[in-house]
Every structure is written in structure tokens, then in C-alpha cells.
Specification:
The structure holds two protein chains of two kinds. Chain A is α+β, with helices and mostly antiparallel strands. Chain A has eleven helices and seven strands. Chain A has two domains: about 80 residues, Arc Repressor Mutant, subunit A, CATH 1.10.10.10; about 180 residues, no CATH class. In chain A, the strands form three sheets. A three-stranded mixed sheet of chain A has the order 3-4-5, sandwiched between helices. A two-stranded antiparallel sheet of chain A has the order 1-2. A two-stranded antiparallel sheet of chain A has the order 6-7. In chain A, helix 8 crosses helix 11 and helix 10 runs parallel beside helix 11. Chain B folds into two domains: about 220 residues, no CATH class; about 100 residues, no CATH class. Chain B has 13 helices and ten strands. The mean pLDDT of chain B is about 95. Classes of the chains: A alpha+beta, B alpha+beta. Chains A and B meet through helix 10 and helix 11 of A and helix 4, strand 3 and strand 4 of B.
């Protein structure tokens, strides 16, 4: 087990291009010269560092011939990269971002009628925070499924929930689910079904949905709703060119059938 | 704003005037039946676009078909579009995609047009599921919303009852008032009922024919429907089956209606084929005869008062109808 000072020494030697002396190490680590002397002798014995003598001057460098050094360096790099996330839960980690919001099924989970559990976090972030968001995604890999979407967050609609997390408004979530449907098909299908049973500002959804493909998806869902007699403004979303996505339509129709079979939106039981 | 009858493509637009409708009704001898003339025009248009463009082969069946294809004199007014799938079909779910495809075609061919009222979009001519009636797993109940002038529900009342909005409030009030001023009458909406029978066996006993309108020859459709209809023998068999059910007062209206349609027995049909169909369907023709005496004694009032049967009444009296049908059923049994 390496001590804190020993880790600092490894870090200092790693950053230095040539062998360095104890004074220099002390300066770089912020530890006293006597402490560095004590620790570096131990590290020499452990064969982690090696000495290079220039006359009476002693210089030290990492012993790359020792097979443990490479893994130690990797560990150091990893802890450095994720240090700001260590000990944080997912919400606390997401709160470290500034220009972001959560969209998709997580953002509207209290509004959906079908009993589905959100499985993916879709985080929309501004360009300058993509790297940070990707680090969150890496850190929680295996624990949570996270997708990162680069967006102009300033033009999006969201608000903070009780945990202080930015959550997309239902209209924004619908526009996003239509645009990034493939990121979480099952979850996004449920979000799109909100079009059929929640009071929404359709003109706002239209403004938030620029991509033709996304407009086609909303158009398709609205047409399913129209089949049940809902006067949804599908014409506003009709794609300019003939569009079709059989796999999207199959998935959406199946989700729609689950909804109408339950009788929750139409009272219809004949399916 | 829209031209009100734009989605109706089977008839000349000039016919959608009260004078024209009245004129046709008078020539048909339906003194006050100008609304029936309009109803038939909207029904024919629905029949045409639905049976022509539905993306799966359908057979036109039921009373409306019988009274347009097989019975030519003294027809019974019927405006439900009953159909069945030709191919075996396992359930209604597969029909969703077909309905979407149908509506897309209707949209392309302008049999359906949008009508935007505030944040709502009604589509005149669109086909949708009739959620109130769609309760049976083997029948898909649909409706087509059509524009009307002399019958149906005023648009203000329609949007109130269907969508729960107050038509007296803006933007609905202004829109309706503008629309009314533009077209010159209170815009009405009617829902033409459509049913698709779904079975694992499909419906094979069909013949292709041209379907005429009941207001011909005084007005002829621009587009004529040619489609598959159930054969005469199949149609008779179904009516006999209906009449073989245990008698009850609730079914009396249906019994009288089926009895009127059994005037198909007066036509020339393939007796052996009919008997075979009756055997296959296990139709108890003796039960029909037994029911006939109850229907005869209790159904007269319905026969005499129903407007649907007014033309049937003109062509044949109740007793005579019962006698004639009974005689033909007995002859069928005897042979």
C-alpha cells in the first residue's frame, strides 16, 4: 500500500521529463524535504523509483522496468480523471454540470400511463460540457445507462426538479424523443405517447422539433391518436417528403396497442 | 377555410344544394326525403373510397349491400357499411397499420382534408375507430366523418360533445361563424358507420359487381364503385341464420329488418348452394319458421312506422311479405 506522499512523488516523477532531485520533488509535491527523503528511500527499496547520480547530485526517476509501475500510473491517471466524481451519486454527479438537462423518459416518468421503468438517462449538454458529461457516463458505466446528446441548451425548455436536477419540460422531452428516438427506443416510445393523453402545447412542440425525421415521428403518433378520434394537429407535423420507418412504426404501434388495450385513454376493450 | 364538400369526390358539387336535393327526392317519390338523398350521397362516397382504397381486400356484406345490389324495388334504407376481410385475419391489431395507410391514401386523393379549429384539427373524410362501438374482438368498428348540410350534427354541437370544448368561446366561435358565413348554411358533421368483420377463416364466397346508388337514375355518381360483395346465397344464409335466433323483443327490430332483406328469396338463386351453406353454418330453418309467427304478430308496428322501411312498405304489405317469405322458406325445406 502506497502512502499519500508516495503517490505524490510518483505523480511528480511522472510529470517530469528528466530525472529530478529531492528539492525539486519537494517543491512539486508541497511536502517537506525530510519527508521526501524518508519516502523516496522506501520507494527505492520497493524498486519503484531508481537513482541516477551525477557526481555528488542524486536524481530520481520512475523505474519503468518494474512491471508494477505502469499499472500504478494508470491508476493515478484514472483517479485524477474521476476525482471530482468519487463518492458522488448519479444525481450529485449530474449536478456538477452547468448547461444541461435530462430528457427522455426520466424527465417525464411521472406522466406516463404505461407501467414502464426508465432505463436510460439521456443528458442533453451544451458543446463545452460534452467532455465532462462523457466522463460521468464513463464513471457510472455498468451502474447506469447514460446517453449524451450535444444540444444548444439555451434554446431548450427545462426546469429544476426537487433534487435540483434540470428536467426537460414534457414538450421538450417529446421533441427530443422524436429527434433521438434510437438512443432509447422503448423509453422514447412512451414519451411520444404523451401526445395522446396529456395537455400539451403543440405549437411549442412544433417549434422545438426542427428535424424532418423527428416531425415525421410525431406525425405518425398523432395519426395513431387520430384513429382513436383525437383531434390532434397532425397536419402541422406532416413531413414535406414521403417518409417511413417500418421499425419505428412497429415499435410505436405496439406501445400504442398496450395503451389502448388497457382502456386508459379510450375506454376501448375490444383489442 | 375549406370548401365544405371538397372531400366528397363521387358526386358533382352542384348537387349539394337544397334545391338539387329536393328535386332528386321528389323525382324519386320521397317527398320529404331530401336529407336521405344527401345521406346516400355521403354514404356512397364513403363506400367508394373505403372499399376502393383500403389496403386489403374486403367484401361488402350486410343490409346496405343487399339493398343496393340484390334488391332493386322497395329498398330498405340502410347506411352502415358492413365489410369482411377476404383473407384470414388473426386480430384487429394488424388493421391499425392498414387504417393509417388508408388515411394516407385518402389524404393524397383529397377524400380527406384538414379543418383546423383553434388548436384542434378535424379531418373531413378521415376514417377512425369508433371507440364507443368497438367492443368485439372480431369486429372492427369504424366511422368516417363527412361534411353534411341537411342532416347530422351542427359542428358546434359536434366539437362540444366529442372534444369537450365550448364552441361559444374563442377561437371556436369566430371560426364557426366565419365558416357558416362562407358556406351559407350551418355546417353539419355526420359519421358514416363502417364495420370490418375479422375471422380466422376469411370470406371467400364473394362475387365482383358494380354497386349502384339508391338515388340512381336521378343522380349518378361520377365515380362508380366496383367491388366484391357476398354472393346472393351467402347473403340469404346469413339472414336466415339471424332469423333462427331465439325470439326476443329486443331483437324484434333486427328480425323485421332481416325479414325485409329476405326478399332475396324472391330472386333466382342456386338452391343447392344455399342448402349446402345452411348445412355448413348449421342454420335451423325450422326455427326461422317458428319465429316467423311471432315476428308476424309483433313486428307489424315496427314495419308500419319505421322510416327505414318506408319504401319496402310501398312495395309490399306486412302480411303479404310474411306470407311470401314463409312460403319460400317452406319450399326451400321441401326441396
Amino acid at each position: 500500500m502506497l502512502s499519500r506522499v508516495q503517490w505524490k512523488i510518483i505523480d511528480a516523477l511522472r510529470k517530469s521529463e528528466k530525472p529530478i532531485g529531492v528539492r525539486r520533488i519537494s517543491y512539486m509535491t508541497g511536502c517537506s524535504i525530510s519527508e521526501i527523503w524518508r519516502q523516496i528511500r522506501k520507494m527505492e527499496r520497493m524498486n519503484i523509483v531508481t537513482r541516477a547520480s551525477y557526481g555528488s547530485y542524486r536524481r530520481y526517476l520512475l523505474n519503468y522496468n518494474n512491471p508494477i509501475v505502469e499499472p500504478l500510473l494508470r491508476l493515478l491517471e484514472t483517479s485524477e480523471r474521476y476525482s471530482w466524481l468519487m463518492g458522488r451519486d448519479i444525481y450529485s454527479a449530474i449536478r456538477q454540470l452547468e448547461k444541461y438537462y435530462i430528457t427522455g423518459l426520466f424527465s417525464v416518468k411521472g406522466l406516463v400511463l404505461n407501467l414502464v421503468i426508465p432505463r436510460k438517462f439521456i443528458i442533453a449538454v451544451s458543446r463545452d460540457e460534452v467532455g465532462k458529461a462523457m466522463t460521468i457516463r464513463e464513471w457510472f458505466n455498468g451502474l447506469y445507462s447514460i446517453e449524451i446528446v450535444e444540444k444548444c441548451v439555451e434554446k431548450s425548455l427545462f426546469s429544476q426538479d426537487i433534487y435540483g436536477i434540470n428536467m426537460a419540460s414534457p414538450e421538450q422531452a417529446i421533441a427530443d424523443s422524436a429527434a433521438f428516438f434510437e438512443l432509447d427506443p422503448m423509453g422514447n416510445a412512451e414519451v411520444l405517447l404523451l401526445l395522446l393523453y396529456r395537455d400539451l402545447d403543440f405549437s411549442l412542440i412544433s417549434k422545438l422539433t426542427e428535424m424532418q425525421e423527428a416531425r415525421y415521428r410525431i406525425w405518425f403518433v398523432m395519426r395513431l391518436g387520430r384513429l382513436m378520434g383525437m383531434p390532434l394537429p397532425s397536419e402541422d407535423f406532416k413531413p414535406k417528403e414521403k417518409a417511413g420507418d417500418p421499425s419505428f412504426e412497429r415499435m410505436m404501434t405496439a406501445a400504442f396497442l398496450r395503451l389502448i388495450r388497457s382502456g386508459q385513454i379510450s375506454g376501448d376493450k375490444g383489442w | 377555410m375549406v370548401e365544405w364538400f371538397e372531400p366528397i369526390k363521387c358526386w358533382e358539387k352542384k348537387l349539394f344544394k337544397k334545391e338539387s336535393l329536393k328535386n332528386i327526392a321528389e323525382r324519386l317519390g320521397w317527398a320529404l326525403g331530401y336529407d336521405i338523398v344527401e345521406r346516400e350521397m355521403l354514404y356512397y362516397d364513403t363506400m367508394y373510397c373505403f372499399l376502393t382504397y383500403f389496403p386489403e381486400e374486403l367484401v361488402f356484406i350486410g343490409g346496405s349491400m343487399i339493398n343496393r345490389v340484390y334488391i332493386s324495388r322497395g329498398i330498405r334504407f340502410s347506411f352502415d357499411l358492413d365489410t369482411a376481410t377476404v383473407k384470414p385475419t388473426s386480430g384487429k391489431s394488424v388493421m391499425l397499420g392498414k387504417l393509417l395507410a388508408l388515411n394516407e391514401i385518402l389524404d393524397e386523393k383529397k377524400f380527406s382534408i384538414p379543418l383546423k379549429i383553434g388548436d384542434m384539427e378535424l379531418r373531413l373524410g378521415e376514417v377512425m375507430i369508433d371507440t364507443k362501438k368497438d367492443i368485439f374482438p372480431d369486429v372492427l368498428s369504424l366511422k368516417r366523418i363527412v361534411p353534411a348540410m341537411t342532416f347530422g350534427t351542427p359542428i358546434s354541437q359536434y366539437i362540444r360533445s366529442r372534444y369537450g370544448v365550448d364552441p361559444g368561446k374563442e377561437p371556436y366561435a369566430s371560426y364557426i361563424s366565419e365558416l357558416r358565413n362562407l358556406i351559407g348554411f350551418m355546417p353539419m358533421l355526420e359519421e358514416v358507420r363502417i364495420e370490418i368483420g375479422i375471422s380466422k377463416e376469411g370470406f371467400q364466397d364473394a362475387v365482383e359487381t358494380e354497386v349502384r346508388s339508391i338515388i340512381e337514375p336521378y343522380a349518378e355518381p361520377k365515380l362508380r364503385l366496383r367491388t366484391k360483395v357476398s354472393s346472393l346465397e351467402s347473403s340469404i344464409s346469413v339472414k336466415l341464420k339471424n332469423l333462427s335466433r331465439s325470439f326476443s323483443e329486443e331483437l324484434l327490430m333486427d328480425f323485421v329488418r332481416d325479414l325485409c332483406d329476405l326478399r332475396m328469396l324472391f330472386l333466382k338463386y342456386d338452391r343447392e348452394k344455399l342448402k349446402s351453406l345452411l348445412r355448413n353454418e348449421k342454420v335451423d330453418v325450422h326455427a326461422v319458421l317458428k319465429n316467423l309467427s311471432d315476428i308476424r304478430s309483433r313486428g307489424k308496428q315496427i314495419y308500419e312506422n319505421s322510416w327505414h322501411l318506408s319504401l319496402v312498405r310501398e312495395s309490399i304489405g306486412w302480411e303479404k311479405l310474411c306470407d311470401a317469405v314463409e312460403r319460400r322458406i317452406k319450399r326451400l325445406i321441401a326441396s
